[in-house]
Amino acid sequence: MAALLAKHDDNPPFADHKDLHKVIDATQLGDVPWQGFSVKYSGERPENVPSWMDDEYDVWYRDPRMMAHNILANPTYKKEIDYTPFREYDAADDTRRWKDFMSGDWAWQQAVSYFMYLYFYLTSHQDEISKDPNTHGSTFVPIILGSDKTTVSVGTGNNEYYPLYASIGNVHNNVRRAHRDALVIIGFLAIPKTNRKDAKEDIFRNFRRQLFHRSLSTILSSLKPGMTEYEVLRCGDGHFRRVIYGLGPYIADYEEQLVLSCSVKNWCPKCLALRLDLDGGGIYRSREHTDLMISELPADTLWFEYGVNSHVTPFTNDFPRADIHQLLSFDLLHQLIKGAFKDHLVDWVVKYLRITHGTKRGDEIMADIDRRIAAVASFPGLRRFHEGRDFRQWTGNDSKALMKVFIPAIEGHVPQDMVRAFRALLEFCFLVRRNIITEDTMNQIQDALTRFHHYRQIFETSGTVPHFSLPRQHSMTHYVDMIRLFAAPNGLCSSITESKHIKAVKDPWRWSSKNNALGQMLLCNQRLDKLAASRVDFATRGMLNGSVLSRTIAALPEEVNVPHLRRLIRYFLFTQLFPDDPRDPEDVPAAECPRHEGKLQVFNSAAATFHAPSDPSGVGGMRREQIRACPLWRNVYARNDCIFINTNPELEGMRGLDIARVKCFFSFKFRWEVYPCVLIQWFDKIGDCADEDTGMWIVQPSVLEDGSPNLSVIHIDTVYRTAHLIPVYGPDFIPHTLKFYHSYDVFRSFYVNKYADHHAFEIAS
Questions:
Q1: Averaged over 163-188, what is the pLDDT?
Q2: What is the DSSP letter of 51?
Q3: In a 3-state reduction of DSSP, which class is residue 597?
């Protein structure tokens, strides 16, 4: 860099890092300064005053109203934002569809004035925007909140932080998920701590909850005037609009939902189902009903019979049109992936094996399951488990990856109903994860839930668990109603806030001196927001405007071990040049087949761009991924991915697709036209439908009459996308020495893994 500047007799833009920071700090774009306040206990004091009663607790925050202004004014969102609530219908059959947040009923109810029955109880007639003359005709901006404690290091002392995030419901779900600054950090909440004895006292626990709610109420207070009287803002599309705010869904895990709703542990924070029979059902909780119970019933009755903590008032009671019970969001990560799947079913399998076979034999079976998981072949975006599932620190991504490979690993070691219980749960997860949810999807979700409740009984009858009154599994019963309220759940998942921890908390902490790190983290976040806002401004002003390698191989047949490759190329050229000829190319005399004797350009990978059926929305539904055919991947092993091939576009799903394994990508020029090709080995389907237990199709390598692999050269345009295959292991243990990159060569039958990602779930079902 210095040599380049010297060549042009120029100077660097900044003298040093201090000069750079000075310029960033002076930037006004995206500048929302940090503010703070302190809170101290002011209630009754016992004779022996614990230290936490004398401590002051600092809360830092940024004005959420200004943060909402910045998001609304961002021009990069102008085509990915909804300024009005709407209801979307499929033109083909006039059925309802839910995708982005503003297509849900909750936003519609906030903006439209009428009485309604909401599922099990009558909602109060709130100050709907269209009825109030002060807000009529305004753009409704729901403020979506999320909070979650996070640990930045396990090796230092005070290493826990409590970030508070905010977004607006108007931006599309894909924007909120994509780390494009539509979710911003607006606060660091206080975390009161004391000794173990005092931490168990009710007075300390209630103070901690009251501190949480009062902090939220104070931080959000700047929004309150704008909830009843509009303000005029310039939006990202250049138009000025009257804007009215409202508290929207709150993204939180189960423990935090209890604090938010002032509910008791093991109760549902959304309905009044009994603690010991959660799936027995109950009417939905509401702000009005809870307030009425608190005014009429003693605290002990509320606690033990209704699961209500009457000593704490929710922060939402300080704001209009806000009911915390209704605003609690679904949480795919903690309720389904970490909860029902990882903490429940996976752990129950371990417990079942030990109960049924004894500890020693059960652990041997689990060791084989781990080896099966480790033997799964690579797939784009799929985390590999080198030693199976037995490691201490689990992340959300670990649990997601385990979901995708677990069913084939346990089949043969557990009863059929357990496999079917996993299948039903995974299908439920992938259905609710869809970007667009239709009425038909709703029926499929309910069917998957019914099957899950039926097949999970095997865990109770086998003595593995005593009951299923589990809040995180119970939350699945609310998903259909909540989708109608808030649209597709993937825009309101705690995985969005957890991934934000890295940029907003963990990285700034690592960059700090670790001494009084919070102040440095606040400054770092402020600078990052200024840089992001500056980049948007520079791009808007036009200030930022400004391959796959190949080689020629003469002896490709020897390299890929396909001596008759030239004949396969002649067959391929025949089908390309004479597409209407009804004859099989192999029946055509060699003299009539076109011959190519020129060079071949060989490639180690190809990029597949496909229209994902899980997101049929034009450009927004396009996906891109790499398909590998590399003779030496990472200098260790050959990697030859499997693919879906379109063989009959008239049929849906796997009935119109075939599976093949890529031997190599190559292209050549014949009669001045370039032909991009794939040399493949075909797989045959076993049966004409998916396996009943796992829900996955089974395939096997296709061979000719003489036992040799069934190979072909096909046009690259017939390739849909990457396919992931998992061996059908059967009941036998697999060798300890088996490596994952041997799987496609060693095993003789495979599941087509429809759980590899949510696009494969649509394609391979």
A1: 90
A2: G
A3: coil
- Joined together, the tokens standing for residue 143 give 């403020």
CA distances from 566 to 569, 570, 577, 712, 717 (A): 5, 6, 16, 11, 21
What is the C-alpha to C-alpha distance for residues 735 and 368, in angstroms, rounded to an integer?
Answer: 9
| H-helix segments, 27-89 | 64-73
Q: Show Cβ contacts of residue 573 under 8 Å, excluding neighbours closer than 6 positions.
A: 593, 594, 595, 596, 670, 675
Report the pLDDT value the prediction gives residue 389, as an integer from 0 to 100.
66
Q: Can you state the angle between helices 299-306 and 287-296, rounded to 10 degrees? A: 130
CA gap 260, 517 in Å, rounded = 28
With CA atoms as reference, report the closest residue to 436 among 758, 121, 763, 4: 758
pLDDT over 70, % of the chain: 90
pLDDT tens profile 319-345: 998 999 999 999 999 999 999 999 999
* 84 in Cβ contact with 142 (< 8 Å): no
Least confident of 148-162, 241-255, 539-553: 539-553
CA angle 59, 64, 66 (to 5 degrees): 125
pLDDT for 8 equals: 47
**Residues in Cβ contact with 696 at an 8 Å cutoff, skipping those fewer than 6 apart:** 407, 408, 690, 751, 752, 753, 754, 755, 764
What is the DSSP-derived secondary structure letter of residue 420?
H
The predicted model gives 456-462 an average pLDDT of 95
Q: Count of CB atoms within 10 A of residue 138's CB?
A: 22
Do the beta carbons of residue 725 and residue 689 sit within 8 Å? no
> Using CA atoms, how far apart are residues 237 and 417, in angstroms rounded to an integer?
54
β-bridge pairing 622-633 and 637-640: antiparallel
| CA nearest neighbour of 487 among 90, 85, 103, 89 | 103
Model confidence at 528, pLDDT cuts 50, 70, 90, reads confident
Length of the chain: 765
pLDDT of residue 224 exceeding 90, the answer is yes
How far apart CA 473 and CA 446 sit, in angstroms, is: 14
Closest to 481 (Cα-Cα) out of 659, 620, 205, 281: 281
Q: How sure is the predictor about 349, in pLDDT bands with cuts at 50, 70 and 90? A: very high
Here the tokens at position 691 are: 């396996």
| Contacts for 564 with CB less than 8 Å, ≥ 6 apart | 557
Give yes or no for a contact between 490 and 177, defined as CB atoms under 8 angstroms apart.
Answer: yes
pLDDT in tens, 89-122: 988 888 999 999 999 999 998 887 433 433 334 4
Q: Which of 644, 634, 565, 564 is nearest to 602 (CA)?
A: 565
Contact yes or no for 244/141 (Cβ under 8 A): yes
Give the Cα separation of 495 and 491 in Å (integer): 10
Cα–Cα distance list, 99 to 86, 244, 425, 437, 621 (Å):
11, 23, 22, 6, 12
Least confident range from 437-441, 493-497, 584-588, 722-726: namely 584-588
Place of tokens 């299948």: 423
Amino acid identity at 550:
S
Q: Under 8 Å CB-to-CB from 57, ≥6 apart: which residues?
A: 38, 39, 40, 190, 192, 211
Q: Is the pLDDT of residue 564 over 90?
A: no
Residue type, 467: H
Residue 82, Cβ neighbours under 10 Å: how many?
Answer: 17
Using one digit for the tens of pLDDT, what is the confidence trace for 248-273?
Answer: 999 999 999 999 999 999 999 999 99
User: Helix, strand, or coil here: 670?
Assistant: strand
- Nearest Cα to Cα of residue 600 among 646, 558, 637, 660: 558
CB atoms within 10 A of CB 726: 28
Q: Is the dihedral of CA 657, 663, 669, 671 positive or negative?
A: negative
